[in-house]
Amino acid sequence: MSTNMSVSSPFIRLYVITFLFFSANPIINIVVPLRGEAEGASNTEIGIMMGAYMMTSMLFRPWAGNVVHRFGPLFVLRILLIANFVILVLYAQFSLEWYFVLRALQGITTAFFSLALQMGIVDTLPEKERSQGISLYLLAGMLPTVIGPIAALYLWDWGGMKAFASAMLIIGLAASIIGYHSPLPSRLISNDDMKPKSSMMAQLSQLWSNRAFLVCSMAMLIASAGFGAVVTFIVLYTQQSGVGNAGLYLMVQAGVIVLSRFALRKKVPSEGNWHAPLVIGLLLCLTVGIQLLAMSIHYGAALMYASAVLNGFGMALLYPTLMTYLTFVLPAASRNTLIGVFIAVSDFGVVLGNMAMGPIADHWSYSLMYSVCASMLLAAAGVVYVSGRRLNRY
């Protein structure tokens, strides 16, 4: 028997499925802004289209947690993989006006997928390996973004929408075939402590008095907003400024995330204690990274790629650190629902990065938009320092 379940054969298969499911996203994230600009869409309209994905994902996360608990991860995964295949095929058939709807539907499938996979991993692994399992799941989801942006730019330049359509068909089919026979459990662990003792609304009402959830969610919300703005507008920013290459930037950023999550997966705290200096340090890393991106228009591509490294490192460790901590301190009976809300908050941050930052770029500049994101992250680090120092496991 393996001494480390998180890297055993069944879990590696789960990571492969995760990689396939998320392979379409980095291509879509490049092609949609490029097609939108080519057809005369504004930054605000592009941001709304891109934000629809995270908006619906956010709204469905809490419900997804209850559904996964009721029907089991395996059943939920099989249904959504079929839906995901249909959605990806429709990207090539519909005009740009329909992309808001397709992105919204894709967000729903992602909500259920991530809850099914993460709750299956959390409930199956020993407590000391939770952070490793979550980190490897996140790593698998990020791997496509290492080569996806470069591949998307190549596909767009080489074959336009026809090449894009072929890529979506292949990715959707592969994910459906391989994922249908996933090693996920048919049911989550069920015992008296894990059975919900109240309605979903009653469970959600607990959040307002839970300091741990509020501090973690605030940090994740602002970090995701900054990161979402970077990913959504970096292509247009580099085209306008003439500095750097968006595909290379995203590849470096994703490569740092992947390497950091793999190399440091055993360093992410997995004992239920709050590590304020670590969280503050990661938020400051993102602050400096995004500010360097804002300054790169004046000081050159070197700052841009340094930004990619810092942003990648900060996001690589922030989410698994906060997520693992919450799996210990949230009430067991409502954990699935509340973790769903936390992931929804992360999604909402990306929505803000898409929808709220687009108008700033339209009326002022991309550089100012990124400086606003950096200022918000600095404020978040201050809030964690002031109010997040007494969050050790209850």
TrEMBL record:
PROSITE patterns for this protein: MFS
Membrane topology type: Multi-pass membrane protein
Gene3D superfamilies in UniProt: MFS general substrate transporter like domains
Protein known as: MFS transporter
Residue ranges of the TM segments: 12-34, 46-63, 75-94, 100-122, 134-156, 162-180, 212-237, 243-264, 276-297, 303-326, 338-356, 368-388
Record Pfam families: MFS_1
Subcellular location field: Cell membrane
